[in-house]
């Protein structure tokens, strides 16, 4: 009988310095976290500039915020896809 694979958890983070995005995958077998994969990526310069402008803006149109949020989520999706591809030997549920 095959032993069930441990639960995997994926995390993303961008600190307040906004110099990049960290992504990781951990397993939680026996309630002990084990790092499976980790990577850190810089923001693309254009997206970084856009996000800094949003932070400084006293107000903005909702479509501007939505557009920037979409770009950020799209970048996170790309990075998580890269992380997942680097984990080909790990079974992901």
Task: Describe the protein's topology.
Layout: E1 8-13, E2 21-27, E3 34-41, H1 45-56, H2 62-85
Antiparallel strand pairs: 1-2, 2-3
Helix pairs in contact: 1-2
The number of domains is 1
CATH homologous superfamily designation: ATPase, nucleotide binding domain
Largest sheet: 3 strands, antiparallel
Radius of gyration: 17 Å
Average pLDDT reading: 83
Offer a few descriptive terms.
Nucleotidyltransferase, domain 5, alpha+beta, 39% helix, three-stranded antiparallel β-sheet, 93 residues
Task: Describe this entry's structure for a reader.
There is one protein chain. The chain is an alpha+beta fold. The chain has a single domain (8-85), classed as ATPase, nucleotide binding domain (Nucleotidyltransferase, domain 5). It is 39% helix and 23% strand. It has helices at 45-56, 62-85; strands at residues 8-13, 21-27, 34-41. It has a 3-stranded antiparallel β-sheet with strand order 1-2-3, covered by helices on one side. α1 (45-56) crosses α2. It is elongated and about 50 Å long. The model has no long low-confidence stretch (mean pLDDT 83).
């Amino acid at each position: 009988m095959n032993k069930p694979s441990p639960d995997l958890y994926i995390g993303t983070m961008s600190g307040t310095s906004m110099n990049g995005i960290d992504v990781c995958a951990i397993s939680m077998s026996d309630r002990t976290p084990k790092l499976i994969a980790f990577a850190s990526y810089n923001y693309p310069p254009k997206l970084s500039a856009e996000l800094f402008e949003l932070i400084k803006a006293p107000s903005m149109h909702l479509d501007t915020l939505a557009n920037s949020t979409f770009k950020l989520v799209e970048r996170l999706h790309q990075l998580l896809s890269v992380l997942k591809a680097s984990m080909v030997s790990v079974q992901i549920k």
